[in-house]
Amino acid sequence: MKKTITILSILSLSLGLNAQKQKTPQDSIKVFYNELFSVLEKSYLNRKSVDWKTVESETKDKLKSYDNFEKSLTEIKPFFDKINANHCLIFYNNKKYSGTGKVITKDDFSEQWKKKFDTKPAFEAKMIDEKYGYILMPNMLFFDLSPENINKIAQPLYDKIAEIKSNNKPEGWILDLRFNTGGNSTPMLLALYDLLGDNVVWGTLDGNKKMISKIKLNQGKYLDGSKKPAFINPKGELMDKTKVAVITGLFTGSSGEVTALAFKGRPNTIFIGEKTYGATTANTQYTLPFGSTMAITIGYDSDRNGNYYEQIIPNVFVSKKDNFDNLLLDGNFVEAVKFF
């Protein structure tokens, strides 16, 4: 999922809950899926290639066998697979429902990567060997997209990076996106404001790959067309010409890929590691009945220049040479130092 686009409210949570209480399970199932079908037919990126009459009919036939609304959500997976909605997601009662997606096994990763992944990596910003700034940017998933909440998340991350900037003189910065599976890219990009500067950082393309929106950073503000933009309070000089090495991996996906895309076209930047997951389609957040939320694919992600990438391919390929116990021995880190 991604990013920060206005939530379009279909039914309020209170009205949805009241309706659910008053209806039978089958009534609730019909209300939910009718709304889901309607939204997808109007807004889904690949809607014109779907035989909606057939797919809806087949799905409704399967739904007749359910006597519980939540259990009926197991039909989301085959339904999304039929319409190739491999980046759409449904969230309900803290559970995620999606299509099959790409299959990546643990055999595709090093033991060091798996060991670090099992710790559920959090944000890190630190100096390595007193020479290099290191930032590990993890995935971030949340549903309160208000500017105040985004600032609450992004500001402490930005402040850690700014503190390193002001107290040290890094020869270069390493942005590690190996564990960034997505969520919401806005706080990620705001935290990285000093490295990105006052620029267009990414965009959205329509079904014909023509740019329909540009996302800018300017004086700490995230400008995406919202009347009240998300923001951080910046400190000190920008570092938008400083050397940056972006490390990507097979699990770098969705908003993690948007964060990587923001550095495409930036001077003094290199991409190191493995090709990304390939979820470079643009999602918006939509509220569905009964307190559920959908991330619906409505376009393609692009870099600042309007270029689309099905996957982000690194300039320097490095595979299974991770070392999080000692980053100086990490194969990706070694290549970054060469670049610096």
From TrEMBL:
GO biological process: proteolysis
MF terms (GO), sorted A to Z: serine-type peptidase activity
Stretches assigned to the Tail specific protease domain: 105-319
Cited Pfam families: Peptidase_S41
InterPro entries: ClpP/crotonase-like_dom_sf, Tail-specific_protease
SUPFAM superfamilies hit by this protein: ClpP/crotonase
Top-level taxon in the UniProt lineage: Bacteria
Gene3D superfamilies with a match to the protein in the record: 2-enoyl-CoA Hydratase, Chain A, domain 1
Protein name as annotated: Peptidase S41-like protein
Annotated source species: Epilithonimonas arachidiradicis
Lineage of source species: Bacteria, Pseudomonadati, Bacteroidota, Flavobacteriia, Flavobacteriales
